[in-house]
Design a protein that fits this description.
Length: 267
């Protein structure tokens, strides 16, 4: 059996030392080798053309070189966007972004593969929309550690943290109907919910996502924290909310959760 390895340290603008290594039954056809090369070219024109070519192909015919290249390209673009996020927050000049739509496009295509080998790349792309959220949630326990890493990392954007909390909630909801989560993973998810209910976020929206996750977990300790948010504006104020609408919405979010109102978005 052949080992297909794309070493990220050999690709432009990628972190040294990381790699995507997959097992494959054989080399893909030559056209797919060209597509894989275009996907990791860092040329937005070539990447867009390659993405369009992939979308016209039957997924069952995609070789592992193309799938690995899609994941690598998504990681490249996710990291570029994360760097720009922090540059913006620091008031620094932003790294150029040749194609603002590329990350969302890549995330959607990779999510549609439903390949567990793409979990690390999809987790890094959290923050750009629902395809990655739903695909990661569908993997359940297998994807939970990667999502938890994003949710608990101080290097993550607040967009990624918020969407990671949604993905974890989807996993917990699915665990009630057969996609079980282990006690250790549930414990880690509970810790993540508690952390974001008790540590001041960059934006109050993160608290709303943590409230949704906390009530879904049905943990008495977490419910007590949510009850404090439902009792008045003081906890939300302590978490940094100052706008009257944000204070009211935080309290209502907690009241709705305690009353059993299904949180949005739905899985």
């Amino acid at each position: 059996m052949k080992i297909v390895t794309i070493a990220l340290m050999c690709l432009p603008s990628m972190a040294a030392g990381s790699a995507i290594s997959w097992q494959a039954g054989g080399a893909p056809p030559n056209p797919q080798i060209a597509i894989a090369s275009q996907l990791v070219s860092n040329d937005p024109v070539q990447q867009s053309r390659a993405l369009l070519a992939v979308e016209t192909m039957d997924q069952s015919t995609l070789g592992d070189d193309v799938k690995a290249a899609l994941a690598t390209a998504l990681q490249q673009e996710s990291r570029r966007n994360t760097r720009r996020y922090w540059q913006n927050r620091a008031g620094q000049a932003l790294e150029p972004l040749p194609d603002p739509e590329l990350m969302a496009h890549l995330s959607r295509v990779v999510a549609e593969l439903h390949d567990p080998r793409t979990i690390p790349a999809l987790a890094e792309s959290l923050g750009v929309g629902s395809p990655a959220i739903r695909t990661l949630a569908g993997f359940g326990e297998l994807a939970a550690p990667a999502v938890l890493d994003v949710v608990m990392s101080p290097a993550s954007t607040h967009y990624a943290i918020d969407q990671g909390l949604i993905a974890l909630r989807f996993m917990v909801e699915a665990s009630r109907t057969g996609h079980r989560l282990s006690p250790s993973i549930l414990e880690r998810i509970g810790h993540a919910a508690e952390y974001h209910l008790t540590h001041r976020p960059r934006f109050i929206f993160t608290v709303w996502r943590a409230i949704d996750l906390a009530v879904t977990l049905q943990d008495p300790r977490l419910r007590t924290i949510v009850q404090a948010f439902a009792s008045g504006p003081q906890p939300a104020t302590a978490m940094g909310a100052t706008d009257s609408d944000d204070l009211e919405r935080t309290q209502k979010k907690a009241l709705d959760g305690l009353a059993g109102v299904p949180p949005l978005p739905r899985p």
